[in-house]
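Predict structure. Input: U-box-domain-containing protein, 287 residues.
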Amino acid sequence: MSLYQAEQLKEHGNAHFKRGEYDEAIARYSQAIQQNSNNPLLYTNRANARLKMKLWEDAMDDCMRSISLMAENMKAFYFLGQAQLELHHPNEALSSALMAYDLCSKSSHQTSSAFAITGFVLKCKKAKWDLREKDRVRRRHDLLGELESKLEEDKKREISSIEERKVTGELGSVAASEETEATTETTQQKIEELRNSFAISDPNHLEKREVPEYLVDDISFEIMHDPVVTRHGHSYERATIVEHLKRNPVDPLTREPLSVSDLRPNLALRKACDEFWNNNSGWAFDW
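Output follows.
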């Protein structure tokens, strides 16, 4: 009977989730878990709802529990990465995102998650790169580092104050999350403005280094050298797509049948890649 009740409660939770009633969805999934605590999908469902409520740490707990019950759990790793990134752990988030991508790419059936997971992996990699760039810029300029540290300290104090107001009941969970997010965004904007000001005075060392998304391969997530385009219009690094097709003869994103003979050189993108490498070879290999 408990398994049946758990399934019914999960369906009720799904209905609430679709209507955007995330508090109710979490309550129903929690009740379902009480009836069947060994179902990994219940934890991923609740994690997704908790992500919507910006309950990052609770979502992480659900994902870890789900993974402990089912190791090859694409959604759990995907949701885990999202929570980790929101908590400013880009290295861990990238590892989780790559695991989700690997599981998605090995799937034998078409999935609508491929594009979302691919985009998220790139987002995590850029966040990791930005963190390294921040450290590099700080090392180049002591004053900039001191000013950035001051802004970060101010942010931590403000977030701590928000948490205290949440504990005392002055702020609800949603309002606290919104204020925390606004504080984080404001601090980041100030840091960007600060860096831009310093970059103007020292462009050779402090100029922001970025990699355009269209130059990044959607399999290895490295900057391409020899891009090819499929008949479906997606471009990949030749070596990585050929290696992928040896294992699984489908497009990694669309999951449609694909063979090496379907690949054609992407001459326009190759020109853009060559230009980027020529102008940025001193640091691009670190991406």
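The longest strand covers residues 227-229.
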